Hints:
The chain is mostly helical. It is 66% helix and 4% strand. The strands form 2 sheets. Strands 4-3-5-7-6 form a 5-stranded mixed sheet, with helices on both faces. A two-stranded antiparallel sheet has the order 1-2. A hairpin with a 2-residue loop joins strand 6 (715-721) and strand 7 (724-732). Helix 19 (450-464) runs antiparallel to helix 21 (479-505) and helix 28 runs antiparallel to helix 29 (678-688). The two termini are 52 Å apart.
Amino acid sequence: xxxxxxxxxxxxxxxxxxxxxxxxxxxxxxxxxxxxxxxxxxxxxxxxxxxxxxxxxxxxxxxxxxxxxxxxxxxxxxxxxxxxxxxxxxxxxxxxxxxxxxxxxxxxxxxxxxxxxxxxxxxxxxxxxxxxxxxxxxxxxxxxxxxxxxxxxxxxxxxxxxxxxxxxxxxxxxxxxxxxxxxxxxxxxxxxxxxxxxxxxxxxxxxxxxxxxxxxxxxxxxxxxxxxxxxxxxxxxxxxxxxxxxxxxxxxxxxxxxxxxxxxxxxxxxxxxxxxxxxxxxxxxxxxxxxxxxxxxxxxxxxxxxxxxxxxxxxxxxxxxxxxxxxxxxxxxxxxxxxxxxxxxxxxxxxxxxxxxxxxxxxxxxxxxxxxxxxxxxxxxxxxxxxxxxxxxxxxxxxxxxxxxxxxxxxxxxxxxxxxxxxxxxxxxxxxxxxxxxxxxxxxxxxxxxxxxxxxxxxxxxxxxxxxxxxxxxxxxxxxxxxxxxxxxxxxxxxxxxxxxxxxxxxxxxxxxxxxxxxxxxxxxxxxxxxxxxxxxxxxxxxxxxxxxxxxxxxxxxxxxxxxxxxxxxxxxxxxxxxxxxxxxxxxxxxxxxxxxxxxxxxxxxxxxxxxxxxxxxxxxxxxxxxxxxxxxxxxxxxxxxxxxxxxxxxxxxxxxxxxxxxxxxxxxxxxxxxxxxxxxxxxxxxxxxxxxxxxxxxxxxxxxxxxxxxxxxxxxxxxxxxxxxxxxxxxxxxxxxxx
Length: 740
């Protein structure tokens, strides 16, 4: 367990330090949060330092590495110190009353990090069964990069045409932790999920003002599973044989992951790396929502919240280059928050237009401008298609029922007590109209299904509730604060519904077609819906428990509360049983070693990869075996960060949205290894600028040994052990010409 305690100490120390440095800068924009932004300061600290190091490298000011990272760490420290010194009294006035909440937040982070790090060490292996090799390859390539854009680890001579900024942040933290990319792979997963859960805790705590419901938010967003866990439990003779993977494949032709499944799956993929950034963006939008909530019929202030907008632009831009799908959902949330505030304020049309423009345009425009070097280096043009086969209502209920039942229950109970002529009911008309327009558009595009009904219920009900001006808020007479939190609850539900409606009408076209045409669209956007509705579900339980259920009869109260508890219990089945199934009963020894499976299957290749990492400092072009996807060829480039001529060519087709000569590379690599013709080999080596030729166990399995002799006779062997040979094409043997 030495590796566990060492990794935990480094992760905590670095995240604590970065958060502490960023906090004085964000404390004012994050005033509406109970912890004054302390939870998301860790994410924003990592983002600030990583962004600075990336930008300096992209502009050729400083190479990416520990010196540049420390430079921007110092810049952050200076900015934080100046802010604190100039506004010391204001900072202390904000922080002191929240001292216990802030201390609790740090304790929660420590516990979450410790638990997740323990879980991650139960399945640490990077294998070709998932995207782990790809993720590790990108991380290694980024870590070897001096000046961005990063090189494509599986297509030499080309820039990475995929989201890799999240891996830049991981690489930056790894440098600060003084750990290699391979050693940091599993600790990084634990840290990123811990940051995600902490931000969700902060949001749940801030909306409900109750610590227990902050934990409930973490459960519903980050831990709970869908109804499939319960359905499997009822059908299984042995509860420990749960099909943990099958719970993410409910709707045919799509992927239906939820955060806890993503944690068990164990990849360090782009969508996983965006989790804490998305949660931090959600927290900032909550702060904007509070600022835009009218007090006494007027918006709080006429001035533009530049600090908050700047943070939102930075997070939004980071989402574009980490996982662009998240930016779309964040933009939708931003517009819904801004538009929902306008009917509540007594202002003219021009005033409304100004509020929209000064809030949304700087955020969205700033997000693009801040990351323009990355955006210009990547080509990801994807057309939009119309959905033909829509989601079955039963499948939809299995995926989201655990989250939706508390929301619908709260809405129905609340509307039952709503008085006629309620002050907020008129404002709710805008939401009813919005729901009606969405329904009309849905019906116009194609046939409706029961999924439509399941979605319209919460949207319409929340509309009648006056966009969050809930009954209990009216009675308590605290309309400003209650309206802010209640309206954000409505925004979460409505935004999630709009996203699902969109997935039922449109999809982003990619290399997948036929039954898999909308696989990625549903996959990426449903994760956002899970976060939004999970947070809203926790808030709905709080509203029911604290403000509504006591008005019902005993029988009705028990029925509603029993239904909610049943759903929460159903969501707990998966996280209780899936880890046991995933780890085969925690049968293997605990380790954070990402190379364990690689070393077990190909020990000589693993040893050679380690030697290359330690002795080859530059990022070279290597010839190794290639495969379509999800196989061991491509392992050397993945585990070292050197660039293969072609690695997993199936992934390259997806990244580049077409073949574009990819298959020619795979064909040439086959000829290079199989042919005994030195002249042909020399031509291929020159064509792709190959600097290293790797001949190991997998190459023998795929290509045989017929072509090995020509390498041995022509090039210097820089590594030879246990059947593995690595040739340096820049060092030719004496007396050997270009033709061999």
